[in-house]
Design a protein that fits this description.
single chain; alpha/beta; Beta-Lactamase; Enzyme I, Chain A, domain 2; 4 domains; eight-stranded mixed β-sheet; eight-stranded parallel β-barrel; 22 strands
C-alpha cells in the first residue's frame, strides 16, 4: 500500500500536535497544560480566541481561554443544549459560523468580553463516544474557518480527550444526554421482548476499545500497524464471503458484499492514513475517522444511506479491535460476575455462547418480538428488553443495572431506594416461584376434579430438563427450527437425529410433540436461498413453514428420516406448522409415511406408532375442519400467529401489540367453534402459544373446554396455581353468556369473576 502525501489538514494538525506533545509530556498541572494548549492552537490557526469548555457536574464550564476575559474562567457555565457550546456538546456536532450571533442557539455571556468577535468554530471533545467538552475558536472578522482548520481542530480535540481523562478533569461516565453516576440514576424504557427481572452489571457484547494513547511516537510504525490490521480485516471478510454457508445469493450476500466494498474502499483507508500523518496513533486515527463518520450519520435523512453508514461503523469497530489486539466478543472473553448484556442487536448463536449461570438479562438497541434471539432467549428463560434507544451510549461498562421487562424499564446506576424497591419486587417474584416449585409434583387438577394436561414449549437440547423442574406432563411443542437458526450450515440428518433422540431420552415416558421445521419468512436462514422470499413485505404470512418444506422436500425428507430413526421403538408425535388447507397436511403426512416405508424396507427400526397433528394458525383452516379432523390424531392451536392473522395486526409492531386483546370476544368465539368441532369429532385439541401461559387467558381457554396447554416453563407454576384454585364447571357454565353478550370489557368481567371466587390469576 503506497504512502499518500499528507494533506494540508494533516500538515496543519501535525504542527499543532508536535507542540502539544511537549506540553502533555511536561510536569506542570492540568490547568497549566490547558492554558498552554489554547495558546498553541490560537497561534497556529491565527485566531484571536481559543477556549476549552469541560463538562463537570452536568454543565459546561469555561476551563481555559486565550482571548476571552480570564475572569470568566471557571465562572462562565452553560447547560447542555444552551448556547453554541452547549449545542455542540448535546448534539456531538461541529459548528462553523461566520456570524455567531445570527445562530438561533447563540447565548451572550457578557463576563467573557466576546462582544468583539464575529466568527465562531467549535468541535466536541469526545471520550468513549460521549462529548466531555468543547474546543472552540473565534475571530474578530466575520469568516468561516477553512476545512483544513476544522479538521485540525477535530484532531486536536481527540488528543485533548486523552489529556482531560488522564488528569481526571471530568467523570468519564458524563456525556451529552448521559446522567453521571454521581448525579443519580438513568431510567430507560423499551419494548418487552421476554418477560422477567434481572440484576447485574453492564457488559457490552462487543467491548469498546479504550484508546489510551493518541499522539504517535513514530508515524511510520503506526502506519505499518494499520496496514497490517487492514490486511487481517480484509482476509476475514474474504473468508466470510467465500465460505460454503454464505455461498448462495440473497440479502445476507448483499450485506457481505457491502462490507467487502467498504473494507477495500481506498477513500476510507486514505482518510485513516491522513490522520496518522497528522501525528495520531493507529487506534486514534481509526477513531478520528469514525467520529467524522458518526457526525455525518446525524446529518443523513435517507434510512438506506444511514444503514450503509452503520455498516462502515461496524467495520471500523472491527478494524479498531484488530489493531488494538482486543479480539472477540464478551462471550469469548468470559463473564466474571452476574451480567446484563448490552448490544445493538444479537444473533441466536451469539447468545448461546454466553455462560447461562452469569448472564441474567439482555438489553438491545434494536430487536423485535419475532427475532430469532428473542425466541431463543425466551426458551432460555432470560429476560430481554428491546428498542432501548442509545443504550450503548447512556450506559457505561460495569454500571449496575436493574432490568424489569414487565414495566418495561431499565435502571442504570440506581439509587439505594430504587434498589430496595426492585429487590422487594424481585423477592415477591422469587417467593412465588418457590411456591410454584412446591407444587411441582402435584397434578394440574381443578377444584372440581378435572385433570388438565400441562405441557411445555421447547427448542433446545437442554430444555427437556424443564420437565423435571416444573413437573410438566411433556413437551407439547418442540421447535425443531432452533437447530437450523443457530447453525452456520444446514444441519445434517445425523445431527438432527442425535438431537431428537437426546430430547426423547430426557423426556422418558412423557410425550414430546415435534413441530417440523418452521423457517423462511421472518426466520430466514443465511445459508439457504428461498426463491421469491427476498424483500417480503409481510414475512410472517410469506413463504415459510410447511409451504417452504413441501417445496424443499429434500429438507423435509431428511428431517422425517431423522425423527423416525430417533424414535425407534417409541411413539413419535409430529405436527405440521401453518397448515392452510387439508391437502397440505395430507402431503406432509404422506411424505413421512413414505420415509417410514423406506426405512422398514431396509430393515431399519422405526417408531412403534406415529401420531400426526396439525397446527391451526391460519384462520382459513378452521373452515375446512370437517374435511380434516377425521384424518388427524390431534390438533394444536398456535395462538401467536392466529391472533395476528385474525386481527390483521403485526405482533412485531409495538403499537398494535398492545391494542388487540387475547380476551377479545372475537378470538374466544373463534376458539370456541374450533374446540366444539374437535370435541364432536373426538380429536384431542390443545393450545400452544403465549396465550396459554398467562393465568387469566389460560382460565378463559379452560372455560372454552380446552384441557391441554403447552406453555413456556416459567409459566407452568402460575398456570398450575390457577388451575388448582378453579371450579372449571362453574366457569364453563358462565362462558356462553359472556360470548353471547360480547362485552368490550370482557377482561374486566373475567377478572371480577375470578376475584370473587379467589382464583389465583396474579
Amino acid at each position: 500500500m503506497p504512502v499518500p502525501p499528507p494533506t494540508a489538514a494533516a500538515t496543519a494538525a501535525r504542527v499543532i500536535l508536535t507542540r502539544l506533545h511537549d506540553v502533555m509530556a511536561g510536569r506542570t498541572h492540568a490547568q497549566a497544560k490547558l492554558n498552554n494548549v489554547v495558546q498553541i492552537i490560537g497561534e497556529a490557526l491565527t485566531s484571536e480566541v481559543c477556549s476549552v469548555y469541560l463538562l463537570r457536574d452536568g454543565v459546561l464550564e469555561l476551563f481555559a481561554t486565550r482571548g476571552l476575559s480570564q475572569e470568566a474562567v471557571h465562572v462562565t457555565k452553560l447547560a447542555l443544549g444552551e448556547g453554541l457550546v452547549g449545542t455542540i456538546a448535546k448534539n456531538v456536532e461541529t459548528l462553523n459560523l461566520d456570524e455567531a450571533a445570527a445562530h438561533p442557539e447563540f447565548a451572550y455571556r457578557p463576563e467573557t468580553g466576546e462582544d468583539l468577535y464575529h466568527s465562531f468554530a467549535g468541535v466536541p471533545i469526545v471520550r468513549r463516544e460521549r462529548a466531555v467538552g468543547v474546543l472552540c475558536v473565534q475571530h474578530e472578522a466575520p469568516r468561516r474557518y477553512d476545512e483544513v482548520e476544522i479538521e485540525a481542530l477535530q484532531t486536536v480535540a481527540m488528543v485533548l480527550a486523552e489529556l482531560i481523562a488522564a488528569a481526571g478533569l471530568v467523570d468519564e461516565s458524563v456525556g451529552a444526554g448521559v446522567t453521571a453516576r454521581d448525579m443519580g440514576p438513568a431510567q430507560l424504557s423499551g419494548l418487552k421482548l421476554v418477560d422477567g427481572m434481572a440484576r447485574g452489571h453492564a457488559v457490552f457484547h462487543q467491548p469498546h476499545v479504550v484508546i489510551e494513547h493518541t499522539v504517535a511516537e513514530d508515524v511510520e510504525i503506526e502506519r505499518q500497524r494499520v496496514y497490517s490490521a487492514f490486511r487481517q480485516m480484509r482476509e476475514q471478510i474474504d473468508r466470510m464471503t467465500s465460505q460454503a454457508e454464505f455461498g448462495t445469493a440473497g440479502e445476507h450476500q448483499d450485506v457481505l458484499e457491502t462490507y467487502k466494498m467498504f473494507a477495500y474502499d481506498e477513500g476510507w483507508s486514505r482518510r485513516i492514513n491522513d490522520a496518522i500523518s497528522s501525528g495520531l496513533t493507529a487506534e486514534a486515527a481509526i477513531e478520528r475517522v469514525q467520529q467524522r463518520t458518526r457526525m455525518r450519520m446525524r446529518e443523513i435523512d435517507d434510512p438506506l444511506l444511514r444503514d450503509r453508514m452503520h455498516d462502515l461503523e461496524d467495520l471500523s469497530n472491527r478494524l479498531l479491535r484488530i489493531v488494538a489486539g482486543q479480539l472477540g466478543t464478551a462471550a469469548q472473553l468470559g463473564l466474571r460476575q452476574d451480567s446484563i448484556l448490552i448490544a445493538r442487536n444479537l444473533g441466536p448463536a451469539e447468545l448461546l455462547e454466553y455462560d447461562r449461570r452469569r448472564l441474567k438479562g439482555v438489553v438491545l438497541e434494536e430487536g423485535s418480538l419475532t427475532a430469532h434471539v428473542t425466541i431463543v432467549a425466551r426458551a432460555m428463560g432470560i429476560p430481554v428488553l428491546g428498542r432501548v434507544r442509545d443504550v450503548r451510549h447512556l450506559v457505561a461498562e460495569g454500571d449496575l443495572l436493574l432490568l424489569d421487562a414487565t414495566q418495561p424499564l431499565l435502571v442504570a446506576r440506581p439509587s439505594t431506594p430504587m434498589e430496595e424497591v426492585f429487590e422487594a419486587k424481585l423477592a415477591v417474584t422469587q417467593r412465588r416461584r418457590a411456591e410454584f416449585a412446591a407444587m411441582r409434583d402435584l397434578p394440574a387438577l381443578t377444584q372440581d376434579g378435572v385433570r388438565i394436561e400441562l405441557m411445555v414449549n421447547a427448542g433446545l437440547r437442554d430444555d427437556a430438563a424443564a420437565l423435571d423442574v416444573t413437573g410438566a406432563d411433556g413437551i407439547g411443542l418442540f421447535r425443531t427450527e432452533f437447530q437450523f437458526l443457530v447453525s452456520a450450515t444446514l444441519p445434517q440428518r445425523e445431527r438432527q437425529q442425535r438431537l431428537y433422540r437426546d430430547v426423547m431420552d430426557s423426556a422418558g415416558d412423557r410425550p414430546v410433540i415435534f413441530r417440523t421445521v418452521d423457517i423462511g419468512g421472518d426466520k430466514a436462514l443465511p445459508y439457504m436461498k428461498v426463491d421469491g422470499a427476498e424483500g417480503e413485505e409481510n414475512p410472517a404470512m410469506g413463504w415459510r413453514a410447511l409451504r417452504l418444506a413441501l417445496e424443499r422436500d429434500a429438507l423435509m425428507k431428511a428431517q422425517a428420516r431423522a425423527l423416525l430413526e430417533a424414535a425407534a421403538g417409541r411413539t413419535l408425535h409430529v405436527m405440521f406448522p401453518m397448515v392452510s388447507e387439508p391437502w397440505e397436511y395430507e402431503a406432509a403426512r404422506d411424505l413421512f409415511e413414505r420415509q417410514r416405508e423406506w426405512l422398514a424396507g431396509r430393515g431399519r427400526m422405526g417408531p412403534t406408532a406415529v401420531r400426526y397433528g396439525a397446527m391451526l394458525e391460519v384462520p382459513a383452516l378452521a373452515e375446512m375442519l370437517d374435511q380434516l379432523l377425521h384424518r388427524l390424531d390431534f390438533l394444536s392451536i398456535g395462538t401467536n400467529d392466529l391472533t395476528q392473522f385474525l386481527f390483521a395486526a403485526d405482533r412485531g409492531n409495538p403499537k398494535l401489540a398492545e391494542r388487540y386483546d387475547w380476551l377479545s370476544p372475537a378470538i374466544l368465539r373463534f376458539l370456541s367453534r374450533v374446540t366444539q368441532a374437535c370435541r364432536v369429532a373426538g380429536v384431542p385439541v390443545g393450545v400452544c402459544g403465549e396465550m396459554g401461559g398467562r393465568p387469566l387467558e389460560a382460565m378463559a381457554l379452560l372455560g372454552l373446554g380446552l384441557n391441554r396447554l403447552s406453555i413456556t416453563p416459567a409459566a407452568v407454576g402460575p398456570v398450575k396455581a390457577m388451575i388448582r384454585s378453579l371450579d372449571v364447571a362453574a366457569l364453563r357454565e358462565a362462558m356462553p353468556a359472556w360470548l353471547a353478550e360480547a362485552p368490550r370489557d370482557l377482561r374486566a368481567r373475567m377478572e371480577s369473576w375470578a376475584g370473587e371466587r379467589r382464583v389465583a390469576i396474579l
